[in-house]
Amino acid sequence: MEVNQFQDTFENITPKYKPSEKINKIVLVSDAYVTNDIFKDCDFAVTDTIDFRSIVTTNKTTKFSSLSRDGKKEDELKKSNKYNFFKRGSVFYGENLDDITKHLKKPYLNKIGYNHFKIVEKKEA
Fold first, then answer.
1. DSSP assignment of 93-124, as one string?
2. For a 10 Å CB count at each end of the chain, is N or C smaller?
3. 61 or 58: which leads in pLDDT
4. Which helix H or strand E contains 10, and what residues bound it?
């Protein structure tokens, strides 16, 4: 395998989205973890969701096949709570983009590949 340094930024390799005639929009270019409070700040949205869970343990273990389905055994692995992520390609529409982006700007999620978005402002009249 050969690895080469990539000179371009993430923002420059995302597709160019066509602006809307009447309203601003934000397009997710990665899956995003956002609470449903985002819907209070956007006029409407076109979204799809996916479920996300992880494996949780409080102790160091070598029994990785002992996933607890009932959550009663604290010394073994168990499933985390279920989270809903908005799928890449979801679109949020609204006039005030700052109100919408405040829900998406989470540096700790950006660092692991989530909550990346593209702002597409409406066409100037």
1. E-S-HHHHHHHH--HHHHTTT---EEEEPPPP
2. N
3. 58
4. helix 10-13
Q: How far apart are CA 82 and CA 73, in angstroms?
A: 19
pTM across the whole model? 0.71
Task: Determine phi and psi for 104, rounding to 5 degrees.
Answer: -90, -25
Q: Cα separation of 88 and 115, whole Å?
A: 9
Question: 58: which residues sit within 8 A by CB, 6+ positions away?
Answer: 74, 75
Domain boundaries, the chain: 21-48+87-125, 52-83
Over the stretch 97-110, which tens digit does the pLDDT of each residue have?
A: 999 999 999 999 99
Judged by phi (left if over 0) then psi (alpha if -120 to 50, else beta), residue 102 lies in: alpha
